[in-house]
Amino acid sequence: MFAAHQMSAPWALCSSITQEETAREWLTWASAGMEGVVFKQLNDTYRPSVWGWQKYKVREASEAIVGAVTGHSPHAAARQARHRWSP
Question: Mean pLDDT score of the chain, rounded to an integer?
């Protein structure tokens, strides 16, 4: 089908498996661009706008606290001077 219709990006031909262990391994590939896994019945076909397929998305998150001072602050300069490390 891909060759016959000359399909290219953003279309992609995806692998299909029935082994749960392989699917679990695929879910560890998020850093390589793996977005998730779609689950469906073996005999189910794609039907636009019809529910039935389930998608499990991989979500990676990071938490951070970010702070900044903009402009001139005499109090910040005084604190910085007190906490300077000197060898």
Answer: 76
Q: Which two tokens stand for residue 16?
A: 């299909």
**Could you tell me the two tokens for 70?**
């903009």
pTM passes above 0.90: no
CA 35/CA 56 separation, integer angstroms: 9
pLDDT tens-place string over residues 19-77: 888 888 888 876 667 777 888 888 888 787 888 888 888 777 788 888 877 777 677 66
**Alpha-carbon distances of 59 from 10, 56, 71, 82, rounded to whole Å:** 21, 9, 37, 42
Q: Do 71 and 52 touch, CB atoms closer than 8 A? A: no
Secondary structure (H, E, C), the chain: CCCCCCCCCCCCCCCCCCCHHHHHHHCCCHHHCCCEEEECCCCCCCCCCCCCCEEEECCCCCCCCCCCCCCCCHHHHHHHHHCCCCC
